[in-house]
Design goal:
The chain has 386 residues and is an alpha/beta fold. It contains 15 helices and 18 strands. The strands form 4 sheets. Strands 4-5-9-10-11-13-14-18 form an 8-stranded mixed sheet, with helices on both faces. It has a 5-stranded mixed sheet with strand order 2-1-3-8-6, with no helix packed on it. Strands 15-17-16 form a 3-stranded antiparallel sheet. Strand 13, helix 11 and strand 14 (282-289) form a beta-alpha-beta unit. It binds iron/sulfur cluster.
Length: 386
């Protein structure tokens, strides 16, 4: 598929759900009203009810046993089932790097969009899309967690194992989440996306407790390596609309990828961002240079043979992920940080994801500890602490 064709596969009226070709419903949730509402919104798509033990049978689903090729088919199959584990978990960060004490709310796994660098290709142990319909358990778990530690502040996000809004035209979960978070005095929810599907965020009382976030990149990277996603213009228009609705916003330059013309590319995206979106509405902006598990390269290059960025030189980090050499990371961070600083409001927290104190010192001229620690910096930016 050419990249141009892949981009036109994105439908702004419903996000990327047009990719879904088949639905499997776990027997245990088949009669749930929520399941039925999702199926009604899916329309005329072949749907099968399956026993729990059949849910994960790749032969039954006709998915290639080769994981790389199986992924492409898997992204067209939606499984509606129960989450039998916990919904809320600490972000899987690493001790060796500065992390931000983020909590992940696991609403489902995988996503119908196709980013060449998507870490989920190497992280997940199954190739399909899944969404957990037992959201009563999700809200019960959140309520219990908040009341067990009433003094604690929480930054929670749903965009770690999926895209927060990729399936939202089907699930409408964001409406429930935003309404639930409205009444939480010590917590914020971050919805992170590469779509522009914000229909369900309209006409809600959010009370500033939901932050809507977009991943951004240099235009050639968005065009060529983020397939079936909303374009830069579409993402920024959606962000501007959310700002008008009073939502606070966040942006993530992650992964920063070295490519010909990268300086101009990142400058251009940053300029466009601040032309379209009011700086005062932005709570935080992160920067994270490309990092990946060793097996991602073989999976991604098999699936996307025209992509070249995996053939750069990388060094294996303490967290067993490949990264660019330090000098190159610092060069890219410095340029992006200085551009962001030109336009950003003084209380917007610009931070690096998973980098060491040495890199912080070189790029920003200080370490997070000198400003109370990264978690406190972000809590402060979100208005959760003084
Ligand atoms: S939008 Fe996010 S979850 Fe979906 S393919 Fe891209 S990186 Fe992966």
């Amino acid at each position: 598929m050419s990249n141009k064709k892949a981009r036109t596969a994105y439908d702004p009226s419903r996000g990327p759900v047009g990719q879904i070709r088949q639905v499997l419903v776990e027997q245990a949730v088949a009669d749930e009203p929520y399941t039925q509402r999702i199926l009604a919104r899916l329309g005329d798509i072949p749907t099968e009810i399956v026993a729990d033990n059949e849910m994960f049978d790749q032969d039954l689903l006709g998915i290639d046993k080769d994981f790389a090729t199986g992924l492409t088919k898997g992204k067209q199959i939606l499984l509606l089932g129960r989450n039998r584990g916990r919904f809320l978990k600490a972000c899987p960060a690493t001790r060796e790097y500065r992390c931000c004490d983020y909590q992940v709310l696991n609403i489902g796994m995988n996503c119908p969009m196709e980013c060449v660098y998507c870490i989920l290709q190497a992280y997940l142990n199954n190739p399909w899309l899944s969404f957990f319909v037992n959201t009563d358990d999700l809200f019960r778990e959140l309520t219990e967690a908040f009341s067990a530690e009433p003094e604690r502040v929480w930054r929670i996000g749903t965009g770690e194992f999926t895209d927060s809004l990729a399936l939202d035209s089907l699930t409408c979960l964001s409406r429930e989440l935003v309404s639930f978070m409205r009444d939480q005095p010590k917590a914020v929810l971050e919805l992170k996306t590469k779509t522009d599907y914000i229909e369900n965020l309209k006409n809600l009382e959010h009370n500033g407790r939901t932050i809507v976030a977009w991943s951004l990149n240099s235009p050639p990277i968005m065009q060529n390596e983020e397939l079936k996603t909303a374009s830069l213009d579409q993402r920024l228009s959606a962000a501007a609309q959310c700002a008008k609705m009073g939502y606070r916003l966040a942006f993530h330059f992650d992964p920063i990828i070295h490519h010909p013309g990268w300086q101009e590319g990142y400058r251009q995206t940053i300029k466009q961002l601040f032309e379209k979106v009011p700086a005062a509405s932005i709570v935080w902006i992160s920067m994270g240079a490309l990092r990946f598990l060793p097996n991602l390269k073989s999976i991604a290059t098999a699936r996307f043979p025209n992509s070249g960025f995996f053939y750069n030189e990388f060094v294996l980090g303490l967290d067993n992920k490949f990264r660019y050499f330090r000098t190159l990371r610092v060069e890219m961070y410095k340029l992006i940080y200085e551009e962001l600083k030109k336009y950003a409001a003084t209380n917007t927290c610009i931070y690096m994801c998973m980098e060491s104190d040495e890199i912080w010192q070189e790029v920003c001229g200080y370490t997070p500890e000198e400003d109370g620690g990264l978690a406190t910096m972000l809590d402060r930016a979100a208005g959760l602490v003084e």
